[in-house]
Amino acid sequence: MAKKEAAPDMVEQFAEFKEIKNIDEETMKTVLVESFRKALENMFGADADFDVVLNPNTGDVQIVQNLQVVKVIPEYNVLMIKGSIPGSKGSIVLIEK
Fold first, then answer.
1. Residues 53-70, mean pLDDT to the nearest whole number
2. Is the pTM here over 0.85, yes or no?
3. Which of 10, 6, 8, 7 is nearest to 55 (CA)?
4. Chain centroid to CA 66: how far?
5. Which among 14, 74, 76, 78 has most CB atoms closer than 10 A?
Protein backbone atom coordinates (compact mmCIF):
# COMPACT_ATOMS: atom_id res chain seq x y z
CA MET A 1 0.00 0.00 0.00
CA ALA A 2 1.32 3.44 -0.96
CA LYS A 3 2.14 5.79 1.87
CA LYS A 4 -0.11 8.87 1.93
CA GLU A 5 1.79 12.13 1.61
CA ALA A 6 1.10 14.85 4.17
CA ALA A 7 -0.76 17.89 2.89
CA PRO A 8 1.43 20.97 2.63
CA ASP A 9 1.16 23.35 5.56
CA MET A 10 -0.77 26.35 4.23
CA VAL A 11 0.80 28.77 6.71
CA GLU A 12 4.31 27.75 5.64
CA GLN A 13 3.38 27.87 1.95
CA PHE A 14 1.98 31.39 2.17
CA ALA A 15 4.87 32.58 4.35
CA GLU A 16 7.32 31.30 1.75
CA PHE A 17 5.35 32.90 -1.09
CA LYS A 18 5.21 36.19 0.85
CA GLU A 19 9.01 36.18 1.27
CA ILE A 20 9.76 35.20 -2.33
CA LYS A 21 7.50 37.91 -3.76
CA ASN A 22 8.46 40.46 -1.07
CA ILE A 23 4.83 41.10 -0.08
CA ASP A 24 4.04 42.63 3.31
CA GLU A 25 1.85 40.59 5.69
CA GLU A 26 -1.14 42.96 5.61
CA THR A 27 -1.29 42.87 1.80
CA MET A 28 -1.03 39.07 1.82
CA LYS A 29 -3.94 38.77 4.30
CA THR A 30 -6.04 41.18 2.22
CA VAL A 31 -5.40 39.20 -0.96
CA LEU A 32 -6.40 35.93 0.73
CA VAL A 33 -9.58 37.37 2.28
CA GLU A 34 -10.60 39.00 -1.02
CA SER A 35 -9.98 35.69 -2.83
CA PHE A 36 -12.42 33.97 -0.49
CA ARG A 37 -14.92 36.81 -0.94
CA LYS A 38 -14.74 36.51 -4.74
CA ALA A 39 -15.23 32.74 -4.57
CA LEU A 40 -18.29 33.24 -2.31
CA GLU A 41 -19.65 35.88 -4.69
CA ASN A 42 -19.28 33.45 -7.61
CA MET A 43 -21.06 30.72 -5.64
CA PHE A 44 -23.87 32.73 -4.01
CA GLY A 45 -24.18 35.96 -6.01
CA ALA A 46 -22.99 39.50 -5.50
CA ASP A 47 -25.64 40.33 -2.91
CA ALA A 48 -24.60 37.53 -0.52
CA ASP A 49 -23.36 38.96 2.77
CA PHE A 50 -20.41 37.05 4.24
CA ASP A 51 -17.65 37.89 6.69
CA VAL A 52 -14.29 36.22 6.15
CA VAL A 53 -11.88 36.05 9.09
CA LEU A 54 -8.32 34.81 8.55
CA ASN A 55 -5.95 33.81 11.35
CA PRO A 56 -2.48 34.13 9.76
CA ASN A 57 -0.77 32.27 12.63
CA THR A 58 -2.81 29.06 12.31
CA GLY A 59 -4.12 29.31 8.75
CA ASP A 60 -7.69 28.99 10.04
CA VAL A 61 -10.39 30.66 7.97
CA GLN A 62 -13.86 31.38 9.33
CA ILE A 63 -16.66 32.24 6.92
CA VAL A 64 -19.86 33.59 8.43
CA GLN A 65 -23.01 34.20 6.41
CA ASN A 66 -24.85 37.29 7.62
CA LEU A 67 -28.61 36.92 7.25
CA GLN A 68 -31.28 39.58 7.72
CA VAL A 69 -34.19 39.18 10.14
CA VAL A 70 -37.22 40.42 8.20
CA LYS A 71 -39.94 39.96 10.80
CA VAL A 72 -40.36 38.71 14.36
CA ILE A 73 -43.64 37.08 15.46
CA PRO A 74 -43.14 36.61 19.22
CA GLU A 75 -46.52 35.00 19.91
CA TYR A 76 -45.49 32.06 17.66
CA ASN A 77 -41.75 32.18 18.49
CA VAL A 78 -41.03 32.77 14.81
CA LEU A 79 -38.24 34.66 13.07
CA MET A 80 -38.60 35.34 9.37
CA ILE A 81 -35.12 35.43 7.86
CA LYS A 82 -34.06 36.53 4.39
CA GLY A 83 -31.70 33.98 2.86
CA SER A 84 -31.03 30.30 3.34
CA ILE A 85 -29.92 28.97 6.70
CA PRO A 86 -26.94 26.63 6.41
CA GLY A 87 -26.93 23.23 8.08
CA SER A 88 -28.80 19.97 7.91
CA LYS A 89 -32.33 19.24 9.07
CA GLY A 90 -32.59 18.97 12.84
CA SER A 91 -29.42 20.95 13.48
CA ILE A 92 -29.37 23.84 15.94
CA VAL A 93 -29.05 27.40 14.67
CA LEU A 94 -27.69 30.05 17.05
CA ILE A 95 -29.10 33.51 16.45
CA GLU A 96 -27.29 36.44 18.06
CA LYS A 97 -27.66 40.21 17.98
1. 83
2. no
3. 10
4. 11
5. 14
